[in-house]
Amino acid sequence: KITYIHQAQPLGLAHAVKISQDFLGDDRFVMFLGDNVIQGGISPLIRQFADSQWNSQIVLTEVSHPEEYGVADLDEDGKIHQLIEKPQNPPSNLALVGIYMFDHHIFEAVNAIHPSRRGELEITDAIQWLVEQKYDVYPYIHRGWWIDTGAPSAMLEANSLVLEELEPRISGYVDRDSEVDSRVTIEKGAEIVNSIIRGPTIIGENTRIVNSYVGPFTSIAHEVSIQNSEIERSIVLEHSTLDSLPARVQDSLIGRHVCLERSPMRPKALKLTLSDYSQVGLL
User: Fold this and answer.
1) Contact, 54 vs 91, CB < 8 A?
2) Is residue 217 within 8 Å of 200, Cβ to Cβ?
3) What DSSP letter does each residue of 42-64 carry, written as one string?
4) 48 phi and psi, to 5 degrees?
5) What is the pLDDT of residues 19-28, one digit of tens each?
6) Residues 17, 31: contact at Cβ < 8 Å?
7) Does residue 141 contact residue 60 with C-beta atoms inside 8 Å?
């Protein structure tokens, strides 16, 4: 069950926290910007924060272009001295990843700060307020990979890295004419018939793959049908169909309820139904 809280206007991340106070109450909570993917996930960080007396924990990582991010300046003891949003002259290369943990004192902060020059209540200003008020804000420096998945290429790269972390298992059906290597996960109810599956790859529940090739770094969601087709380094969401495609699908993001098939009708042509901002590459 998911509860949504509507933010009527884009007035900043701290504003999002502010309007969530009635829902959150005095509970400690995680604020996770959804386009972030980090190695190992955040479960260890949640346990670390839950077992601590910290008022807040923020996640930092070293980046090549800190001027493009919110940046943390730490003192000699490793404590936060200052947080700066997209500085022209960054005092460090430690960027805010977009994963924050707070206790109820954050509500004091979001009610005390003022909108920035762009008219938003900035979460960096709220955290800086906590620091200045001597609340305990712990800077966790993440040493593994981190990807901001705002672009399709970054989404595919994140998918590849996450697949490499999965522990493979076969819970579905694989017939004797298929080849499935040791790095493949096949969920329950899935069927692999006369096909080749090379990992790291995951095949979702009740998905059916027949006379096809699924190459490395591919994530296939549940209730998908792939027949007489080839796909590699791609993501396919649920209830989609790939049928008798004349060329391999590669480096692609395919949404829900998508049907990709070869039509027998003539004249031979490309017949497309595309949503706003779609991108299609044809060879």
Assistant:
1) no
2) yes
3) SHHHHHHHHTS--SEEEEEEE-S
4) -60, -45
5) 999 999 999 9
6) yes
7) yes
**Cα–Cα distance, 23 to 206 (Å, whole number):** 36
* Contact by Cβ (8 Å): 223, 241: no
Q: What percent of the chain has pLDDT over 70?
A: 100
Mark 47-86 as b/e (b = at least 16 C-beta within 10 Å): eebeeeebbbbbbbbebeebeebbbbebeeeeebebbbbe
At residue 132, the pLDDT reads 95
Cα atoms found within 13 Å of the Cα of residue 125, Cβ hemisphere only: 17
Q: Do 156 and 234 touch, CB atoms closer than 8 A?
A: yes
Instruction: Name the one residue in this structure whose structure tokens are 């209730």.
Output: 223
Between CA 223 and CA 161 the distance in angstroms is 24
Cβ within 8 Å of residue 96, ≥6 positions away: 58, 59, 60, 69, 70, 71, 72, 83, 124
Q: Which residues pair with 82 in a beta bridge?
A: 73
The pTM is what? 0.78
Nearest alpha carbon to residue 82 among 74, 70, 92, 90: 74
pLDDT at position 276 is 73
Identity of residue 172:
G
Q: Count CB neighbours of 126 within 10 A.
A: 27
d(CA 166, CA 232): 18
Q: How far apart are CA 245 and CA 261, in angstroms?
A: 6
Whether the Cβ atoms of residue 94 and residue 5 lie closer than 8 Å to each other: no
Q: Which amino acid is at 233?
A: R
Can you list the domains of the chain with their CATH numbers? Answer: 13-148 (3.90.550.10), 164-261 (2.160.10.10)
d(CA 249, CA 231): 4
